[in-house]
Amino acid sequence: MSKRILVVLTSHDKLGDTGEKTGFWLEELAAPYYIFKDAGAEVTLASPQGGQPPLDPKSDAEDSQTDATRRFRDDESANAELAATHRLSDMQADDFDAVFYPGGHGPLWDLVDDGNSLRLIERFIATGKPVASVCHAPIVLIHAKDGEGEPLVKGREVTGFTNGEEEAVGLTDVVPHLVEDALKKAGGRYSKADDFTPYVREDGQLITGQNPPSSAPTADALMAWLAR
């Protein structure tokens, strides 16, 4: 029986007070999407508001394109799914084998404390299923609790977008949370590789990737987890 993977995208499109747009990062959806699909998994896309989630325009720029993003752009079926994401409030963890959160800056504003997202994450963990996230999306973990009411990341190995990477993209003073600092503050055993190089940490059911180049390795780690 094929694995069922829920992919949760942001609905937030405003980059703080800059007047610029943000959203999800295309490569961080596209690469995992095809790793899951090509392995025969069923993929369901959801977002807090449902419908078309906002795409970070920078991730659509030519210098951000990869084979996976170009494939996604040309995939009518994938784009139809993206235009009609399910409402997160309608999703039940028991209907899926795993959940994956792509990044982009959007989750720093909406998914960080979204009650439906936290409910899902805590249920996935409670029922022995994996929770994977990449780049800025590990921010979704900082308010989640384990079965004892402790912070989910406490004492666990995690990674996510580094302070240095945030500084490199010039948004340190714009974002409401720095992922590296937030994971550490929540008790996570945070580690990182050099800026913008692939790096993935796996600790029990938690799988986290550091940055956009880590999106495919994070998805691969999730599929390997499900294949055990």
The main β sheet shows up as: 7 strands, mixed
Q: What's the N-to-C terminus distance?
A: 14 Å
Shape: globular
Task: Please report the total strand number as a whole number.
Answer: 9
Unreliable stretches (pLDDT < 50, length at least 5) are none
Overall CATH class: Alpha Beta
User: Can you write the helix and strand succession as a string?
Assistant: EHEHHEEHEEHHEEEH
| Rg value | 16 Å
The CATH homologous superfamily is named: Class I glutamine amidotransferase (GATase) domain
Domain count: the total is 1
Enumerate how many helices there are, as a single number. Answer: 7
Strand residue content: 5-15%
Structural class: alpha/beta
Helicity level, as a percent range?
Answer: 25-40%
With strands numbered from the N-terminus, the spatial order across the biggest sheet is 3-2-1-4-5-9-8
- Overall residue-averaged pLDDT value: 97
CATH architecture: 3-Layer(aba) Sandwich
CATH topology: Rossmann fold
